[in-house]
Amino acid sequence: MVSTIQLTFGVYLLILLAIGAYFFVTTETNRLSEYLLADRDVGAWPVAISEVSSVASGWTFFAWVGMGFLTGIHGLWFSITMIFIIVFMYRYVGSRFRRQSEELGSITIADHLSLAVEDARLSTYVRVVATVSILLFMGAYVGAQIIAVGEAMDTGIGIDYAIAITVGGVIVGLYTMLGGFNASIWTDVFQGILIFVAAVTLPVLMIAEIGGWSAFVTEAAAVEDAALLEMSAGLAGQAFLLSALGLVTFAFGTIGQPHSLMRLQAIRSERLLSPASVISVSFQSLRLTVPLLIGAAGRVLYGSVDNPENVAMMAIVDFFPELIAGVLLAAIVSAILSTSDSMLLVASSDFTRFYEEKIDPSASPAQLILLGRGTVGVLALGGVALAFVQPGTIFEIIEFAYVGLGATFGLPLLFMLFWERTTGEAVLAGIVTGLVATFGVGWITPEHYSLFVWPICIAAIVAVTVATSSSGTDVADVPDPTVGDAPAADD
């Protein structure tokens, strides 16, 4: 017999499909930029909320809750660093990046780096390596999200894991195929509201179950083998330094998340970046801190569990009526799907642009849009396959992809935007080094590899720039972001 929680969740999935179908039917999609960037006509609120939703993912309600369960508020080292980086990206990177993106006609970060390199041969190398990197890192990222969907539906609804990951992968693939970036944006807005409800409601009820805030603080402080309410997590000396720096350098990956950078490319006007930043930071602050409290409260309530990453699911089932549990479970899975759709769209975009630029320049817009939709479907199935293999925890897989994307794309972009001497050879060196260093250092020292990837990649970009500054390939100039931007329309 179908339970109330299963029925509620099923209705939610149908709503997501309806959103994708709506944009498929009502949106006139004649150009690739319309499908992949909503024709650069997205307002501040949709951009900001969808940006938060797109990075919330299985990380927030699974991996980050697990971190809170094991180490409490120690994870704030990551959270605080990431908030500062988000402000930097909106305040200093957004205008430069959006202006240059529109002038170059770039749709994704890989596309952008390739088009910015003026030598055709070198540009081809950049596009090939960047596309391979996107497919590898995004494939891992999507797989992690579908694993989270499977665990959520298995733990929360009682649906078999294999069925759950198949259903989750098919649903996100379908609505993204149908609606493109518009569907991704507006499902993210819908999901972002549910994420907010879950993030606020769940820890309040868990702490109330413990006996209120004072009781929670007392019992959390009494937990053996864990300093849940100390940012040191009970560590000292070298152990603390390595752990804190590991979290800080992990957060640096924020500079190169393609699904977030696409929002900066798609926003209607540069002047909307300021209000969008306020909205984004507000929501990000919530989703980066509250899950740690959920995890810590779960440690007090449950003591020990087989998988700390499932604590939020367990609490929802235990402390809410079935109807509300179904809605909140939908909110959790929405965070996961909102990341998956964005990642599928980014990877599809880069493969489609590679096809257009290097394989069939005569391909029509209709053919490219069809290829883009087909690529989304194939990548969704690939994510399902990876979820069956399940090569690591959600935290481990996302950390690998997050740092890899930041080093491979974020660093070359920042150097190109802010250091005039940066050459095309240095951009290529940064992408290649980011890809190789992420895999190589991750294999050699998986526990601390985020500490070493960044200095290696920075050194490579600087060294190649210095070596080629007099004879290397130029990159596109960065337009002045203070001149010529049209007044912002209503968001």
Model description:
It is a single chain. The chain is an all-alpha fold and 491 residues long. The protein contains 17 helices and no strands.
CATH class: Mainly Alpha
How much is the average pLDDT? 82
Which blocks of ≥5 consecutive residues have pLDDT under 50? 484-491
Question: CA-to-CA gap between the ends?
Answer: 45 Å
Q: Could you name the CATH topology?
A: Sodium/glucose cotransporter
Fraction of residues in H or I helices: over 70%
Shape call: globular
The CATH architecture name reads Up-down Bundle
Class by alpha and beta content? mainly alpha
- In percent, how much strand structure appears in the residues? under 5%
Radius of gyration: 22 Å
> Please, what is the CATH homologous superfamily?
Sodium/glucose cotransporter
Main sheet overview: none
Number of separate structural domains: 1
Organism: Natronococcus amylolyticus DSM 10524
GO molecular function, one term: proline:sodium symporter activity
Pfam family, one: SSF
GO biological process, one term: proline transport
